[in-house]
Amino acid sequence: MNVHKLPHRPMPNLTVQQLEYLVAAADATTHSEAAAGLGVSASALSQGLAELSRRVGLTIFEKDGRSQKVRPQAEPVVEHARRVLASTADLGRYIERTRSGTAGLVRVGMIDAAAVDHFAGALHAIRHDRPDIDLHLTVGPSGGLFAALEQGHLDIVVGVKPDTSIPSVVWVDLMTEGLRVYAPPGAATVDPAKWGPWVTFPEGSHSRKLIAASLRRSGASFDVVAESHQPEVLREMVKLGLGWTVLPSVQAERTPGELVPARREPVAHRELVVAWRDSAVTPEAAVTLRDSLVDFTSS
Q1: In the chain, where the domains are located
Q2: Cα 55 to the chain's mean position, in Å?
C-alpha cells in the first residue's frame, strides 16, 4: 500500500506582540491612535504590522479616507489574533493563580435580569461560600457581554442565547424566560391589532428580534417610538404613556410601581445561557461559579 503524505506547510511565525498590534490597529480609527493606546511609537507599530503582513502573505489594511480598515480577506487573521490573545491572557492568569495558590479574579458578565432577579441568590452564595474568589460583575446587554467574552475580557457570561455560534465560545442552557405585553395606563386591550406604538430595546438586540417577530405573528404592528437597553427605563416610559412594551414579567411586575400585562400569556420566550471560552485553562473558580449557576436553576 502506498501512503501519500500531505506536504508540510510551515505555520507563520507570529509573535503575541504582533497579534496585539494587529487587534489594536483593527479596533482603532487610525494607526496613530492604536499606537498611542498601546504606548508604543507609530513607527514601531507600523514595522510590527508590516512584518506580520509579510509573514502571513496578505495585505492586512487598506486606506479608507484618512483611516485604515481591515481588508475583507484579512478578517480571519484578525479574528484568529483575538482568540490567541484571549487564550494567552487565560494562560497568564492561570499561571499567576497557580504560583500564588489562590483562586483569584473571576470576571462575570450578566444581563440585568440575570444579575438582579434570577441569580442574585447564586452570586450571594458563592461570595459567602468562597471568600477566596474575587468576583467582578459587569452588567450590560448580551451582545456586548458576548463580545467581551470572546475577546478575553470576561470569564463567564449569563445572557440571552445567541442566534449563531461564536468561535471558541460554548454555552449551557439555564432557563426559559417569558416576555409579556404591557400597555400604558388606560390603553390595555386584548386585540393585538390595537397594540402599540412600542418602546423597546435598541436595534440589533436579540430580545428585540424575538419581540418583533412574535408581535407580528400575533397580528400586531411594530412601530418603535423610543429605545433603551434598560428595562427600568422602558417600564417608566410605559407609565408615562409614551408607548407599549414587551418585558420579562420579573422586571415589569416588580413592586412598587408594577405594570399590568395586557394578557397573561407570554407573547414570546427567550433562552438564558451561561457561556465561557472553550479553553484548557478555564479558572477553577470560574468553573465553580458556572456549575453553581446551573445547579441553581435545576434546584
Answers
A1: 9-101, 102-175+272-298, 177-269
A2: 32
